[in-house]
Amino acid sequence: MIAKCRNSKKTFGIRVERRDEGWCLTWAFKIDEKMASREGFEKTKISGNFYMDEEFPGCPYCGAMDFIQCGCKKLTCYDEGIAECGWCGNKSKPVAGEQFEFTSGDY
Ligand SMILES: [Zn+2]
Ligand SMILES: [Zn+2]
Fold first, then answer.
1. Which of 18, 59, 93, 105 could tie 64 with a disulfide, CB 3.0–4.6 Å?
2. Is 20 helix (H, G, I), strand (E, B) or coil?
3. Confidence at residue 3, expressed as pLDDT on a 0 to 100 scale
4. Eight-class DSSP state of 42
5. Tell me, what's the pLDDT at 68?
6. Three-state DSSP class for 26?
7. Where are the domains of the chain?
8. Counting ligands in written order, which one lies closest to the CA of residue 83?
9. How far, in Å, CA of 49 to CA of 24, rounded?
10. DSSP one-letter string for 49-107
11. What is the number of alpha carbons within 13 Å of residue 46 lying toward its C-beta?
12. Residue pair 31/59 in contact by the 8 Å Cβ criterion
C-alpha cells in the first residue's frame, strides 16, 4: 500500500500481510512516488480489517502509528488532532476503527 506522511508530504510504502484476523501491517519504508507506480502498488486490492504487527515501525518520516483513509481513498499517516490528507489536502475527522478499503486503480 502507498501512503503519505502528513508532515513531510512524502510518500512511503506499507507492506501488508494477509492473516486470519485481517490485514496485518508489517513494515513501512520510504519510497519514491514514481518508483511506487512502477512497482505496481496500484494494482493491489485489499479491504477489511487492518491491524499493526508489534514490529511495525510506524511512519518512516515522523513515526506516527495511526493512519487515516481520506474520501479520495488514499492513506495518510496520523497521530492526533485534525486529520489532513497528504494527497488532496482534505481535512476530516479521523474515522474510528481500522476499516479501510482499496480497490484496483485507486492509487
Ligand atoms: Zn508521517
Ligand atoms: Zn484525500
1. 59
2. coil
3. 93
4. G
5. 86
6. strand
7. 2-102
8. 2
9. 8
10. EEEE-TT----TTT---EEEE-TTS-EEEE-SSSEE-TTT--EEPPPSSSEEEE-TT--
11. 23
12. no
Q: 83: closest CA among 27, 3, 1, 2? A: 3
Q: Using CA atoms, how far apart are residues 61 and 94, in angstroms rounded to an integer?
A: 20
Q: What share of the chain has pLDDT > 90, as a percent?
A: 42
51 or 107, greater pLDDT: 51
Residue 3 identity (one-letter amino acid):
A
* Ligand 2 center–CA 75 separation, angstroms: 8
- For residue 49, list its beta bridge partners: 99
For residues 71 and 91, the answer to whether their CB atoms sit within 8 Å is no
Cα 7 to averaged position of ligand 2 atoms, centre (Å): 14
The three three-digit cell numbers of residue 79, written as one number: 497521530
Expressed in angstroms and rounded, the spacing between residue 90 Cα and the centre of ligand 2 is 5
pLDDT at site 83: 86
Distance CA 73, CA 6 (A): 15
